[in-house]
Amino acid sequence: MTKTRLIGLTWGHRRAIDPLKKSAEAFSLVHPDIEIEWKVRSLQQFEHQPFAKAVASADLVVFDHPYCGTIMRDNLLWPVDDLLSEVAGGLDPERYIGPSLQSYQTGGRTWAVPVDGATVHSIYREDLFGKLSVDLPENWSEVMTVAKAASRAGLKVIIAARGHHAFLTVVSLMANLGGIWEKDRALDAPALSEALDLYDRLLDVTDRELCLTLNAIDVHERLASSPDAAYCPASYGYATYGEAVGAHVVRLRFADFPGPLGASGAVLGGAGVGISRVCSNLETARSYLAYLGQPDVQRSFSHSSGQPARIESWLEPATDSRFNGFYSAVTRTMEQSSIRPRAAGYAAVEQNLSSVVTKFLQGSMQRAAAVRSMQEIWRRFL
Fold it and tell me: What are the phi and psi torsion angles at 339 (to 5°)?
């Protein structure tokens, strides 16, 4: 029997690869004439690789929503509205966590089946945090209190300040303060300036040099394994670190984004799966994506270290317990999260804006100059 074979491209973490591999195996049991192979690219490639290059080598591709404008402009993926219309609640935004579905909708079309839900929120080591005799922060002022208490106790507050991870927390703070960043509007200078200052002052009372080397996965690894890292106020979360598996010292705990004004504005992450325009078998790809969008299939993701986008998984007590309360802890932040710009070419602009934030946090650029530089980068994009 000749098999139909599809190649999928995802990113290299068990949260991303394991549930997709399991779903491909389960799909092939029902469709033995179909084989789906998932290949991996690095987190850095997932975040920054030119999208046209990624889709040229795959039938299916996992991506983040800021690429939607480029996808539409350059005709890189097939829209998936019609296949989602055949899935229970497939086109109902209320059946997904936060704006996960809306984030892949632009130009009147839907460009991916959401399969992963994530945003910026806080993470902590319950055993170490308990030594600080302070409450979990609900706002940034309380984050500073915790950072100082940790320093006095010989413990660390850490944050993912490497590259665009710092930028995305800065704009989460900016959005929380009311700053709107959309394609047709200038950056809100006062909110951006305050957000940069809040982030910089936190690094003043933590280990700046260390934090500038950390991405989101690094933060989770250090919190789960280090004897002195107690708390991170803002990072893209990985529910897998709440599981009672692996070589980690402890299971991590999670909490809402502690913005200056509470949990709102954290920048949405997550991932969706789209179909490349060079897909070798469109009918098979559409069938598989409709399968991925089903509530029961996404529920199964949690048994393979996944972090589903469907709301049903986020509301399931057994799933929440398995991941040490991850889902219930950050649902409010997810529901109040903000969507990044999706205009064509935005991904490259984000890299340039991130570079300015890095220079500021490294001390090679003053805050006012950083704000002006970021405004100019954005102005050229408008």
Answer: -95, 135
Which of 3.40.50.620, 3.40.190.10, 3.40.140.10, 3.40.50.1220 is the CATH number of 4-118+269-335? 3.40.190.10
Whole-model pTM?
A: 0.94
| Residues 215-237 pLDDT 10s | 999 999 999 999 999 999 999 99
Closest to 307 (Cα-Cα) out of 122, 80, 119, 52? 119
Question: What architecture is the 120-267+345-381 domain classified under in CATH?
Answer: 3-Layer(aba) Sandwich (3.40)
Q: How far is CA 6 from CA 3, 35, 80, 114, in A?
A: 10, 6, 17, 19
Categorise residue 264: left if φ over 0, alpha if ψ from -120 to 50, beta otherwise.
beta
Residue 106 is encoded by which pair of tokens?
């632009």
Dump pLDDT digits (tens) for 13-51.
889 899 999 999 999 999 999 999 999 876 666 565 678
